[in-house]
Records
---
Amino acid sequence: MQTKRATTIFFSPTGTTRKVLSALASGLGDDRPEVIDLTAPGVEQAPSLTLDKGIAVIGVPVYGGRVPPVAKKRLERLRGDGVPAVLVAVYGNRAIDDALLELSDIARAQGFIPAAGASFIGEHSFATPETPVAAGRPDDQDVEIARDFGRRIRSKLEQAQTLEGLEAPEFPGNRPYRERKGSPNIAPVTDAALCVRCGSCAEACPVGAIEVRETEVVTDPTLCIWCCACTRACPEQARSLTQEPVPQSRKWLWENCSARQEPTLFGA
Ligand SMILES: Cc1cc2nc3c(=O)[nH]c(=O)nc-3n(C[C@H](O)[C@H](O)[C@H](O)COP(=O)(O)O)c2cc1C
């Protein structure tokens, strides 16, 4: 089966999912994959897209044990016309819960054929230098695992006579999926004394929640998804997410989720 051309498709506010997918695509034999980046808010206005060849590598971060709703909405703008897909859930060293199963269900509903999948670990979006969780992940070891997994998927697909003959991987998780918790309307705040109004935060925000005005930066808490892309993008360290329940959750993660976990691979 000819599958060499890869397309990576991801939602990745802090870049860890993107990094895993790029290593996986390289293992699949494509160092310069097509990239469909669903992170910027503009993709919701772009025309929907159909993939009809090659292999798709689809990745999302785990939010509350699920696929982030905004990522689901954006993935539903894509069709995979019988194209095989590798599904990847990247999590912050707590757990993936139902995210990989849900991602596989979304991909199947959009016409992709789940051929393999994996969970990888990415530095937790809430982590800080004082409360590190999975700091620096994915690291070199994770990247090598992703590359090697890509190689194995490639050889599995090359050996398969037909896509229909591929055995569907069994992903962990339950249906109905874990209930999404309602979250309070909070968002990162800007320290006016540090902010130089450069706009890096607004540019990084995947949901267009930040407006840089003449004298202040305003964030719409009803749009914010707490992804922390803005706090990481700020060159002045002027942005921080300090309202509860985030500090509490940050401390809990640091105390309970610091032991290193490893990627889990399914289907190859
Ligand atoms: C709102 C929110 C919820 C999260 N929920 C989980 C979770 O349930 N389990 C987990 O291990 N990590 C969780 N994380 C951490 C992210 O999955 C992790 O940091 C991931 O690497 C971020 O991916 P990205 O760099 O592609 O944005 C959560 C992060 C955010 C912002």
---
Amino acid sequence: MSQQLRSTTLGDTLIDYTVKRSRRRRRISLTVDEQGLRVGAPLLASDHAIAAMLRQHASWVLGKLAEWQARRPPPRHWCDGDTLMLQGRVLRLAFETGPQYIQLHHDRIAVSPGLAGNADGIRATVTGWLRRQAMACFYERVAHFHPLLGVAAPLIRLSNARTRWGSCHIYGRIRLNWRLIQLPQHLIDYVVVHELAHLVEMNHSPRFWEAVARLIPDYGARRSEIRTEGHRYLLV
Ligand SMILES: [Zn+2]
């Protein structure tokens, strides 16, 4: 298997993409996600065939790239006035002298002015704080929901995954992504209940979804909301 970086012009737009050739692949495929455009191709596919495929699907590719661009969170500079999300609320980062290194006041996160200009230091301080908020919130929500599902309180661990919100392990352990704390409460609850329901049913069978629906009757709407809106929060 080999991967090559390429670029081409579609419409008026110059587009970078990667080509991954594989012995097992039978036809050319196009994927667009947060990493951009990727082409999967059979080992012997010609560059000409790939270019033709891209031309043929140019409007689809351009549309998908534009969608991902729109979903991307604004670049974060970790400076005064930057915005962050906490349980669906927008918070503003502010450098302020206070009794604590980092503190939440209403709609702003006050950070010690000593950190101003130190992007790595601010990032570590703020994400550490978000992780503590996440743990407190997840404990509270798990404590609320697990008796309703009739399962014992699981061990909770925070995950740092870029691709998923939660996972469930046998022996009563669940992992929840700390980035979930950015999302509104109803989506946090959906993920918590989803993972807890796996302690009842390890699969996604109708019985699993029945267990979820008992606690969250509108789980379908929340599930599609987290799918369309949620992933940009995974990039933080
Ligand atoms: Zn699941």
